[in-house]
Design goal:
Strand content of chain A: 25-35%
Structural class of chain A: alpha/beta
Largest interface: A-B, 64 and 64 residues
CATH architecture of the largest domain in chain A: 2-Layer Sandwich
Number of domains of chain A: 3
Helix content of chain A: 25-40%
Oligomer: homodimer
CATH class of the largest domain in chain A: Alpha Beta
CATH topology of the largest domain in chain A: Dihydrodipicolinate Reductase, domain 2
CATH superfamily of the largest domain in chain A: Dihydrodipicolinate Reductase, domain 2
Chain lengths: ~425, ~425
C-alpha cells in the first residue's frame, strides 16, 4: 500500500482524498497497488470539511511520518511550500504539487533537489488537461515551434461573454465574482499572472529556458473595451488571454497578453471557463489539448494521475523534460524585440488633419496599416480602430507614445497583439 | 547508445529514421542517451528510398542482431507481424509498433508475451496525437464514461467537404483518391474498419474489455447522401464517422458509425483530415485531444515518443493501462441493445396514407418522432427525413424492416445515429 499525506485540504485537497476513496477500484487496478490518503494538514482544524481523512494542523506530522510515501502539496504560496517540499524530498518522499507559483519561481532548484525522487506537477498547468504529460512525454521527437495556451478560465469566461453577449468588462467581472469564477481581488487572474506562471512551466519543458515571472511580458485583460470586441467581431477574430511560447532562431518568446485570433483556428473555439493549449512541433504539426482548467475534481484528477504514475514506476520522466541540457541553448527574447501584428484603438477628436498626424507617426516607424475602421463616438470624437502588418514591439510602443504626445488623441492609445 | 531496427521502411519508417537524425540534438537531450537507427528491413532492396540507414530484406538480421535494443514494427498486416513481434519480445527486445490491426486482434496476447519488456504503440491510434499517453497515464483517476473519436482522416476529409461544399459521396471519393487521401480500394477507411481497430485499443485502456473487430458494430460512410447533409445543416448538426466507447452500467458499448453531432460540441469542430478524441471521465469531465491522424512525420513523432520513453525508463506504464484486472468486470454490450437517437431517411411515394403507415410502424415499436422534414423529390416521390427520441437499436431496425415490407418506401430506408 502506498500512503499519501495531503498538505492543504481545501477544495482540491478534499477532492484528492475523496476521489482516492470513491474510485479506489479503478485506481488500484490501474496502479497495481492500493493508494491510501492517510493524513491531511489544515490550518484550521475547527472548520467543517467534506472529507473523511484524519486531519492535523502540524505539517511535521506528515513530514516526519516515515510510512508516508507521497506528499501532495496544495497549500499555495511560494517560499513556505518551497521549504516544505524541499524537506519532503530530502526525506526521500515523492512530491506531487498543483502549485504553479512555486514552480514559476523554483522549478530548476526543485529539479536539482529532487534528483532521483519523483516530483510531479501535472495539475499546476491547465487543471485536468494532461498537458505536461503530452508535452514532456508525447511530443519528445519534436523541436517545439510554438505553444499557444488559453490557461485562465476566469479570463476566458469573461472574454467569451464580452464577445458573445456584448457585456462590458466591469459588468462581467462583477458577474464572475458573484458566480465564484473570479476572486474578490481578481488581479492574479485578470492581470495575466496566473497564466504567466503556467507558461513559464511549459516554456521550460519545451525549451529548457529558465525565466521568472518578472522577466517576461505580462498584460491582463482589464483594458478590453466594447470597441475592441466590435473590431474583433467585424473581422472574424476572437479575443483570448493567450500565453505564447515561441522559438525564433535561438531565442524564445514568452509572453501573456490578450490577443486577437482568427475564429477559424481551433484554439479560438475554446470558450467559457474551458482551457486549451495548442502546440506546434516541427514534425507532428499542430496538436491541441482541451478541457477544464480548474475545479476541485478536475484538478484532483491530474494530481492523482501523478500519484498513479509514481505508484507504477517511481521516478518517471525527467522533471522538466530534459535528461541533459538542451544543447540548442535558447535565450529569452527581450520584450521589445517581439514582432507581431497589432490592433490599435485610438480615441481622437473628429476633425481634419488628425489622421495625417497618426499616419505619419506610424509611417516614421515603418509601421504599415492593414485594416482600419473609424467609428463616430459623439459629435466631437471618434474611435479609430486599425490593425498593422508585422511590426516590432519597440516601434509600436514608440509610435503610440509619439501619437499621444502630439495631442491628437483624447485617451491613452490601446494596443492588442494579433496572433495569426 | 540505444540501437533501433525498423521493420518496414515505407513512409512512416523513413520518417522515423530521418527524424532520429534530423532532431538528434533535442531527442538526445530529452532521452539522456543517443538513439541510433541502425538497420531497416524492406521487401524490395532495389526501390529508391529517401532514407540514409543501412537496409536489408532479411528480418532475421534485425531479430538476431544482439546490439539492437528496440524493434520498430511498421510492416502492416496481422499474423506475420504478430510472429515477428513475438520473436523480438522473446529475445528481450523492446517493441514499438504503429500497427493497429495487429493490436485489434492480438493486444492481450502481446501484453502477456511482453511481460516486463516494453511494448508500445502510441502511433497506432490517432497518429501524432498522444492519446494513448493521455488515456493510459493522464486520466487514471477516472472511471471513463465515454470516448468519442474522429479517428479516420479520410472519412473526416470527405464528410467535411460534403457538409461544407455540398459535394456528393462519389465525387469526393474520387477527389480524395486523386489527392492520395483515399486508397484505390477505400473500403478499409470508408467502411469504418480502420477506425474500429483504433477504437478497440482505446476500449481496452478505458475499460479492459477484450473484443475483436467482428464483435462490434461497424458501419461506414458509404450511404451518406446530400439529403442527410441538408438535414444536418438544417438542424445544426455535423456528420462525422464516430468511434464510440461508452459505459452503461456494467456494459460497454463499442461502435463505429457515421453520427450526427451538434455543431456546438468541440468534437464537431474537428474538420478535414484532422483527428480528435473527446474523453469524458467521471471526475475530470470532458477533455479533448486534436491533431493530425496520419502522415509520415506525424506518425513517426508518436513512434519516437515511445522510443524516448523506453530510453528514459525501460518498461513504463502497463501496456493496456491496467496493472491488474479491472474489477468492474465490464462486458461488451450486444449490438441490438444500444440505445440512442436516430435520424431516418425514407424515400416515399408522394400520396395520401403513406405517413400514417410509417407513423404506425414506428409507434408500434414505441419510437417517438422528434423532428421531421418532408422534401419533394420529383412529381411522384418525396424524401421524409425524421429524427427520433432515444430508442432501442433493435426496435429501430425492426421498425425500418416493417416500413420496407409494407411497400411504402421506394428505396431501402437509411438510418444515422444521433449523438448529443
Amino acid at each position: 500500500m502506498l500512503k499519501v499525506g495531503i498538505i492543504g485540504v481545501g477544495t482540491v485537497g478534499a477532492s484528492v482524498a475523496n476521489i482516492l476513496k470513491d474510485n479506489k477500484d479503478i485506481i488500484t487496478a490501474r496502479a497495481g497497488i492500493e493508494i491510501e490518503p492517510v493524513l491531511g494538514v489544515v490550518s484550521n482544524l475547527n472548520k467543517k470539511r467534506d472529507v473523511s481523512i484524519k486531519l492535523t494542523d502540524d505539517i511535521d506530522e506528515v513530514l516526519n511520518d516515515e510510512s508516508i510515501d507521497i506528499v501532495v502539496e496544495l497549500m499555495g504560496g511560494v517560499e513556505k511550500p518551497y521549504e516544505i517540499v524541499k524537506k519532503a524530498l530530502q526525506k526521500g518522499k515523492a512530491v506531487v504539487t498543483a502549485n504553479k507559483a512555486l514552480l514559476a519561481y523554483h522549478r530548476y532548484e526543485l529539479q536539482e533537489i529532487a534528483g532521483d525522487t519523483a516530483f510531479e506537477y501535472e495539475a499546476a498547468v491547465a487543471g485536468g488537461i494532461p498537458i505536461i504529460n503530452a508535452l514532456r512525454d508525447g511530443l519528445t521527437a519534436n523541436h517545439i515551434e510554438s505553444i499557444r495556451g488559453i490557461m485562465n478560465g476566469t479570463c476566458n469566461y469573461m472574454l467569451t461573454k464580452m464577445i458573445n453577449e456584448g457585456v462590458d468588462y466591469d459588468t462581467i467581472l462583477q458577474e464572475s465574482q458573484e458566480l465564484g469564477y473570479a476572486e474578490a481581488d481578481p488581479t492574479f487572474d485578470v492581470g495575466g499572472f496566473d497564466a504567466a506562471h503556467k507558461l513559464l512551466i511549459l516554456g521550460s519543458i519545451a525549451y529548457d529556458v529558465d525565466a521568472k515571472p518578472e522577466d517576461i511580458l505580462i498584460e491582463g485583460i482589464q483594458n478590453i473595451s466594447p470597441e475592441d470586441i466590435d473590431f474583433a467581431n467585424e473581422f472574424n477574430y476572437s479575443i483570448k488571454l493567450l500565453t505564447i511560447a515561441k522559438k525564433i532562431g535561438n531565442q524564445v518568446e514568452l509572453r501573456v497578453h490578450p490577443a486577437l485570433i482568427p475564429n477559424s483556428e481551433m484554439i479560438a473555439k475554446v470558450d467559457g471557463v474551458m482551457n486549451g493549449v495548442s502546440v506546434i512541433g516541427d514534425k507532428v504539426g499542430e496538436t491541441m489539448y482541451y478541457g477544464p482548467g480548474a475545479g476541485g475534481d478536475a484538478t484532483a484528477s491530474a494530481v492523482i494521475a501523478n500519484i498513479v504514475d509514481i505508484a507504477r514506476r517511481g521516478k518517471g520522466s525527467p522533471m522538466l523534460g530534459f535528461e541533459s541540457d538542451n544543447t540548442e541553448n535558447l535565450q529569452l527574447m527581450p520584450k521589445d524585440e517581439i514582432q507581431t501584428k497589432y490592433y490599435i484603438r485610438l480615441k481622437v477628436a473628429d476633425k481634419a488633419g488628425i489622421l495625417a498626424k497618426i499616419a505619419k507617426a506610424l509611417g516614421d516607424k515603418n509601421i504599415s496599416i492593414e485594416k482600419m475602421i473609424q467609428k463616430p463616438l459623439n459629435k466631437d470624437q471618434a474611435h479609430l480602430l486599425l490593425s498593422t502588418h508585422t511590426s516590432l514591439e519597440k516601434d509600436i510602443v514608440e509610435a503610440l507614445d509619439q501619437i499621444e504626445q502630439t495631442g491628437v488623441v483624447t485617451c491613452k492609445p490601446v494596443m492588442i497583439r494579433i496572433e495569426d
